[in-house]
Amino acid sequence: MPTVVHGLCGATPTTAPRPRVLVARGTYSERYDSAESVEYPLRPGRRTDRYLDLALARTLAVRPAARATLRPALTAQSDWDPTVFFAHNLPQAVPLIDADRHAPVLYAHNQLLRTYDRREARRTLGPAAAIVAVSDYLAEALASHLPPELRDRVVVVRNGVDAEAFTPRTRTDDGVLRVVFVGRTIPEKGPDVLVDAVVRLGRPDVHLLVVGSAGFDPEAPLTDFEAQLRRAATPAGGRVVFRRFVDRPGVVDVLREADVAVVPSRWPDPCPLTVLEGMAAGAAVVGSEIGGIPETVRGAGVLVAPGSVDALAQVIEGLADSPEELARWSDAGIDRARSRTWSAVRHELDDRLAPFVGQRPADRRTR
Predict the structure, then answer these.
(1) 191-201 helix and 309-321 helix, angle to the nearest 10 degrees
(2) 85 CB contacts (<8 Å, ≥6 apart)?
(3) pLDDT tens digits, residue range 293-309?
(4) Total domains in the fold of the chain
(5) Residue 241 gets which letter from DSSP?
(6) Among 294, 306, 308, 303, which Cα is nearest to 329's?
(7) Torsion of CA 128, 133, 137, 139, to 10 degrees
(8) Are residues 69 and 123 in the same domain?
(9) How many angstroms separate the CA atoms of 323 and 126, rounded?
(10) Residue 56 belongs to domain with CATH number
């Protein structure tokens, strides 16, 4: 999510004021310099607070603990110039914004309303000028929890890519197909499906690099699932290599060295960044036909049934056997990525929100 925020802030017109972003302490300014950070404390919520919030949500349609965390960061909002306020994955920030002065917008990267009934959604999101979803899939999932009068405020703006960073390299055919997975190494992301597919193929000309950790700490101990992944890869020997979590510049390097980038999610990923990043880097992209993945992949990459080792192995083998097919999907992906730069996405966002906020958001300070 910080990568999306950075992409949008970095695409802010030079004539507009510098954006401010409401973020958890320690999650943005240390990584990105595209905006001024307004921070709330990053602290693990007590289990009792979460239970109390859920109980009060069902009875009174409020979540006081969640709001208490955010409220101190918003005390200065009366001093801000009128602004479009994007609450990224923070539905409880929306009712804390002075909607008479500012235009609150919920920017949803995931299904945030799973525990909300329509009464709570109305009370929490009623002040929202609009609700942004990063895919059609997510928009439909959110709408199912919204009252009718809020569904018309949902707009879709799919994620973009830094096409200047993720540039394709000149590839030489050395007889090896380099396949990569980049993401959290958890069952929902499906890295085991990819490992099993490569092992099943048993081809010496197909190599796999799995990059990621269960979380975002490369020094964290391996989880049981990660240990199982490594055991499953044993029959492939050195053709399957594992690398723990890498930072954003490291992701660029990894994807630029790949011939094929696979996004084998089992769960309905709303709009994973790896799809466009792999395309921009020149890799042929293979993704699961689930969630919001097909909306970006279709026509510029190959879709497979989620969880199907056989289907994935068949696609990888086809790409290994046909340099022409590999090049075709690489070229299609590069074209798709170039059409989804963060600048293009920022203009799209402005256009989609203009009917809701009364003027183009680029003409107002964005938070």
Answers:
(1) 60
(2) 22, 93, 97, 102, 103, 104, 105, 367
(3) 999 999 999 999 999 99
(4) 2
(5) E
(6) 303
(7) 10
(8) yes
(9) 53
(10) 3.40.50.2000
